[in-house]
Amino acid sequence: MLSSVRRALAGMTLAVASACAAFGDLPPRSAYCDGFGVLRWSDDRSEVAVFGVNYYTPFHVEYVETGRRGFDHKEVIRRDVANFRRLGLTALRVHCFDREISDKDGRLLDNRHLDLLDCLIAECASNGMWTVLTPIAGWGRAATRRTASAAASAKGN
Asked: Could you please report the per-residue DSSP string of 75-141?
C-alpha cells in the first residue's frame, strides 16, 4: 500500500514540477518511481537529485508574519528565490495547505494564497529551479492565528 501511495505522490509531484518547467529555462521532463522507491527521470532513467529547501511564504504562519511586518509578499518571494539561486539551490519544496487554496470540497479558490503560489512557481521556473509541491492538510485559519499570536508573544511583540 505504502509503495502505491509513494508512486502516486511522486508522479503527482514531478508532473507538477515538469509542467512548471515550461515557464522558464528548465526543459519539461517526466519522472517515475521505480520498484525500489527511487524517483527517476523517464528520459534517461537517472535518479532525480535536486538541492533545495522547504519554503512557506505563501502559506500559514509565514504568510501572516510577512504581512504583519509590512512586507510585500511577492517582493519577498522574488528576493528569496534570487538568493536561493545564488546559493546554488535547484529546487524549492512548498508545503501547500489545502484549506488555504481550496474549499471543503477540494475546488481551487481564486485567492491571495493561490496567486502567491503561482508567483512562486513562475519565479522558480524563470530562475531554473524546480518546484516540488507537497499537499498538507490545513488546520484552519484559527490555528494559523493562534500560531502567529504565539510566535508574536514569544518575541515580545
From this structure: HHHHHHHHHHHHTT--EEEEEEEHHHHB-TTS-B--SHHHHHHHHHHHHHHHTT-EEEEEEE---HH
